[in-house]
Design brief:
Largest sheet: 5 strands, antiparallel
Radius of gyration: 18 Å
Number of strands: 5
Number of domains: 1
CATH topology: Alpha-Beta Plaits
Strand content: 15-25%
Structural class: alpha+beta
Helix content: 25-40%
CATH architecture: 2-Layer Sandwich
CATH class: Alpha Beta
């Protein structure tokens, strides 16, 4: 679910100052998965949007984990993943130049509130964060023509 999603291309391409952060948050043990995902979508996302003008985020997307037979089969094949349900993953694009320049009481307050809020429904001690560059495979929109009428 896009939370901060301005129009235009934002890609963490090799050679650019934009990087992509990828956060996987295991659900806190005392919170049902559905409740954690609901809070993430309806409280945490809007909190980030409220402070959008102060955050160095170029884009922020929430990808909610869903329970599908293929997901269960993949977890079973990997082994040991059943005990760590997640809310899903968050994807954030930031410009390293803007991140370095992000300062001030509003920025500090925004990050403080976001970190505090996520600790209500995520086991932060078991969270995983990756920072990466994106390799674009198809760099254009594919337009599928409509089917002919019968």
């Amino acid at each position: 679910m896009p939370q901060i999603n301005p129009p235009g291309e934002i890609v963490a391409k090799e050679g650019s100052t934009i990087v992509k952060g990828f956060y996987v948050g295991p659900v806190a043990s005392d919170v049902p998965v559905e409740d954690a995902q609901f809070h993430w979508l309806t409280c945490h996302g809007p909190l980030a949007r409220q402070y959008d003008q102060f955050l160095p985020y170029k884009r922020y997307i929430q990808v909610r984990a869903i329970e599908e037979p293929i997901a269960a089969a993949l977890r079973e094949a990997r082994g040991g993943m059943e005990e760590f349900p997640t809310i899903g993953n968050a994807e954030v694009w930031v410009d390293r130049r803007e991140l370095a320049a992000a300062a001030g009481p509003e920025v500090e307050e925004a990050f403080k509130l976001l970190v505090e809020d996520i600790s209500y429904f995520v086991d932060v001690s078991r969270s995983t964060v990756f920072v990466a560059k994106e390799h674009v495979i198809v760099d254009k929109k594919i337009i599928v023509p409509p089917l002919p009428k019968p």
